[in-house]
Amino acid sequence: PMIKTMRAMAMPFYLLHQQVLIVLVSGTLWVPYLGSFPATIILTTIFTYIISLLVAKSPGPVKYFFGLPSKHNIIPGKKLSGFLPVTVLSILFVVEAGVSNIIIAFI
To answer: Using one digit for the tens of pLDDT, what is the confidence trace for 70-107?
Structure first.
């Protein structure tokens, strides 16, 4: 069971490690000991492991967006021919870009 869980965690770990690293470094850069390279590597690995474990053990829709198989077929795969994640993420990107441009325009 442990190897099966670690195998399921591999893709979320790969996809999330850079985002976790950026957030962690930007938050701990001002703390002398936490901003060091060994502390950064250890903390990033721990936090990414925890988040990847949560993704691997999560219900169907979350696993689907990380490319993991799901026991529950909640998201329709036949509609949109499997392009549902791309469609959802594209809509989220357009909304985020629009909101950020509106915020920048008022600053």
So the answer is: 776 655 556 666 677 777 778 888 988 888 888 778 76
Q: What single string gives the DSSP state of each residue in 37-88?
A: HHHHHHHHHHHHHHHHHHHHTS-HHHHHHTT---SS--S-STGGGG-HHHHH
Residue 100: both structure tokens together: 């950020």
d(CA 64, CA 70) in angstroms, rounded, equals 7
Contact status, residue 70 vs residue 58, Cβ threshold 8 Å: no
Give the integer Cα–Cα distance in Å for 41 and 61.
Answer: 30
Q: Which residue has the tokens 């490319």?
A: 67
User: For residues 65 and 44, what is the distance between their CA atoms, to the nearest angstrom?
Assistant: 22
